[in-house]
Every structure is written in C-alpha cells, then in structure tokens.
Amino acid sequence: MKYSQKLGGLAALFEAAAYLLGMVFFIVVLDSTGVVEPAQQIALLVNNQLSMQTVILLTYVVFGIMLVLLALALHDRLRDGAPAIMQTATVFGLIWACLLIASGMVYNSGQAAVVALAGSDPLPAVAAWVAIDAVHGGLGGEAEVLGGLWTLLVSWAALRSGQLPRVLNYLGLVVGFAGIASIIPGLTMMVAIFALGQIAWFVWLGILMLRTSPGAAAHNSGVETAAPRPANAAAAR
C-alpha cells in the first residue's frame, strides 16, 4: 500500500503540472482565448499542430492515465473509513479518467485529419472541426461535473475517515461544488474556479501522499483519526 500511495502522490503532482501546462500554453503561448471563429481555429491548428498535439496528449491522455492511479490510491487510503462513499467516488473518478483519455484522442486524431484537409478543401475542414471540437468539449469537460463529483466525494470520505487534513478536505468540497455547478447554464465560469482550486488541491494532496503514510497525515495535522466502526455497522453500509 505504501508504494501505491507514493505512486498516487506523484500522479497528483503530475495532474497539477498538467493543468498549469495547459493554461500557460493555450492562454499565454498561443493566446487562443480570443480565437472563436472556426476559420481562426483551423489556422491555429495548422500553424501549431505538433505542439498542440503534444500538449493535448499530456493534459488529456496522460492526465487521464495518472488520474486512474490517483483514484485507486485514494480508494486504498480512504475506503476503510467510508467504504460506500469511496466506492462511489472511485467509479466517478475512473469514468472521468476514461472520458478525458477519449477526449484527447478525439482531439489529436481529429486535428490531424482537419489539418490534412485544410490545404486542399478549407470549407469541409471548418465543418469537420466544428463537429470534432464539440465532441472533444463534451467529453473533456466544458462542464466539470464528473471531476467535481469525484473531488467532492473523496473530500467527504476523507472527512469521515480522518485520513487527510480537514482544511484540505474543505478545499476539496469547495472545488467539488464548483465543478458540479459548472453544468448549470450561466455558471460556466465555475470551470475556472474548479481548475485553479484543483491545482492547489492536487499539489497539497500529492505532497501529503509522498511524505506520510495513511493515518499519519491526519495525526500530524491535528486531526484525530476516526474510531474504527463496529463490524456490523461497516457491513450495513
């Protein structure tokens, strides 16, 4: 279990780094925030194909793979204190990971096809990209409801089990609520709150998992570990 916790800690730190990489690349390097017209997007794809495919690979496909490792490590750490909550959380975490991987693969394969088409037939390339981008956005988290549910449930389970610091868990609850709220029309700005909050959550969580064994984090942070539940009570959950 110690090995899985270290692996989960490294995965959490990678998630935070991937978030930052995506933000810096698309907002600062490409300055793509004002690129809204499909024709502008096609030009961006053509001029930055390799770099964009690399960043998408890291921030969606590899991110999803690392998320599987982190979700399973957290399940091992927290399941004894809140088995039903962690079972549900892990299911949402794995679904989220699968959709992120699929989203990244759709984006990269779609980009390659559109770039190849753009030189000879620009209009069909634009139409194809509109469809591809919609699928990518739907799978990858234009609304972060799955990520929000996973983060919220993990933080709730950690509060129940006493395995992580309370302040970290409260941060996770806020981040989770922001992700879930992003699905509500008119509240899409909550995606930014979710992303920024989850970066801090991932960093704190990753450092904690690398430095401490299960039970030690809560003890070292002044949080008492939850008392063991009676066998019959645990079975009833």
Keywords:
single chain; disordered C terminus; 237 residues; 0% strand; mainly alpha
Describe this structure in words.
The chain is 80% helix and 0% strand. The protein has helices at 2-29, 38-47, 49-78, 83-118, 122-140, 145-161, 166-181, 190-211, 216-220, 231-236. Helix 2 packs across helix 5 (122-140), helix 3 runs antiparallel to helix 4 and helix 7 packs antiparallel against helix 8 (190-211). Residues 217-237 have low confidence and may be disordered.
Characterize the overall form.
elongated
What multimeric state do the chains show?
single chain
Binned, the helix content reads over 70%
* Number of separate domains: 1
Largest sheet entry? none
State the order of secondary-structure elements, H for helix, E for strand.
Answer: HHHHHHHHHH
Question: How many DSSP E strands?
Answer: 0
Q: Which parts are unreliable, with pLDDT below 50 for 5 consecutive residues or more? A: 217-237
Q: Structural class, from helix and strand content?
A: mainly alpha
Q: Determine the strand fraction and express it as a percent band.
A: under 5%
Q: Kindly, what is the distance between the CA atoms of the first and last residues, rounded to a whole number of angstroms?
A: 24 Å
Please give the count of helices: 10
Rg from Cα: 20 Å
> Mean of the pLDDT scores?
87
